[in-house]
Amino acid sequence: MTVRGNDWSSLADARPAEPPTVSVVVPHYRAQAQLDLVLAGLALQTHPASRLQVVVADDGSPEPPVVPAGVVVVRQEDRGFRAAAARNLGARAADGEVLLFVDGDTVPEQTYVEELSALPALLPDALVTGRRRHADLTGWTPDRLRAWFVGGPAPEELTEPAWLRESGSLLDADDRSYRFVISAVMGTTRALFEEVGGFDETFGGYGGEDWELAHRLFTAGAVLAHRERAVAWHDGPDWGLRGDDPVAARREKNAETRSLARLLPDPAARGVGGWWRYPAVVARMAPGADDDATVLGVRSLLAAGVDLQVWGVDPDLLDGDPRVHAGEPSASVLARARSQVILDGPVRWAPGGLAELLDRVRPGGPGRLTGRVGDVGVTVAATRALRRSARWGLPLGTFFDEAETVVPAEPLGPHPDLAHHLPRL
């Protein structure tokens, strides 16, 4: 089943005709009592046990986790905090068509699997986040948990973070909605997870790997959804409410910010200035123009005021500018670039012209704009529109609007006067 844009509203209350096969991956490190509660919650699921696999991914605990019969355990050596790698390890052992994640200190309610897996089972493009509530489960046992879930005394509920509650349904997700996806309560199809390569294992500290993955999935055409009915209870307060040493907390958050900035082309995450290996915009320029027109066309692109790099041009023409590349962009660059500009040849952009077209293909706008500047064809497209169309093998217009547009640029004849034009870019 497919939807247009991010509008999954027609599936809000739908259920698959047959429950999907589901694998739940639980990262773990040296917290057996909390893991016991999580596994007890998973044993109480309304989803059929015959179609549910539980995988505990141990991040190098000194002693292997103790688990009930039927639960799969995979382990990696202890090389510091490597939750991203542990989740990938668990995912590789999964055999379900739907892949869910719940943290080792986050106890799922009985309907968690049923509620979180329904949309990915119907919509293979879905990336779904559940609702994470908070409680003090200090000293709790599996028996006490089971009594709570059938109507017994509940634990003390702690403050639920407002920033997660603000996400709503995500029907109107934009290119910053990755911030509302948390791996503690997350699900997607195993096929989509594998297509994008899973979590980035270069994350070696707390936080950030789920936002980076969510951004990459959204760029790959995923449909973001928030399912409040899929509830899991985190043992303890949210990170921002823990009252840790403020200097240590700031250092931890700064490390997350640095890690995200290098991988995630969000201006709000990167700020201004700097050179980045993964740009927000990939521009491809077809060869064939003379060197002078090519130089002016590339300089015009680079002067557009956006996080952009150019491919298909000899970088020696621009004195080895690291933003200019011969050949084609790598798969890792395309996996993160939000937008793509395809040019049959060089043009000179009007001030603000390219930025305006790029803004139009952000989420909520058309997936692709096409136009001409003289004899030069110009395409500006959202990567997520291109990727979803390619995944399904269907025209882009099946999923996103398309439009022809006036391109705010002027053609470049042979050997333009560089001394005249360059100071005016």
How many helical stretches?
14
Fill in the CATH topology of the largest domain.
Answer: Spore Coat Polysaccharide Biosynthesis Protein SpsA, Chain A
Mean pLDDT: 93
CATH class of the largest domain: Alpha Beta
Rg measurement, Å: 24 Å
Low-confidence stretches: none
EC number: 2.4.-.-
Organism: Klenkia terrae
Protein name: Glycosyltransferase
Family: Belongs to the glycosyltransferase 2 family.
Would you kindly provide a written description of the structure presented here, covering whatever features stand out?
- It is a single chain.
- The chain is of the alpha/beta class and 425 residues long.
- It has 2 domains: 9-264, Spore Coat Polysaccharide Biosynthesis Protein SpsA, Chain A, CATH 3.90.550.10; 281-424, Alpha-Beta Complex (Spore Coat Polysaccharide Biosynthesis Protein SpsA, Chain A).
- The chain is built from 14 helices and 18 strands.
- The strands form 3 sheets. Strands 1, 2, 3, 4, 5, 6, 7, 8 and 9 form a 9-stranded mixed sheet that branches.
- Helix 10 (291-302) links the parallel strand 10 (281-285) and strand 11.
- The protein is elongated.
- It starts with 21 loop residues before the first strand and ends with a helix.
- Residues 178-221 form the Galactosyltransferase C-terminal domain.
- Its EC number is 2.4.-.-.
- InterPro entries: Galactosyl_T_C (IPR027791), Glyco_trans_2-like (IPR001173), Nucleotide-diphossugar_trans (IPR029044).
- This is Glycosyltransferase.
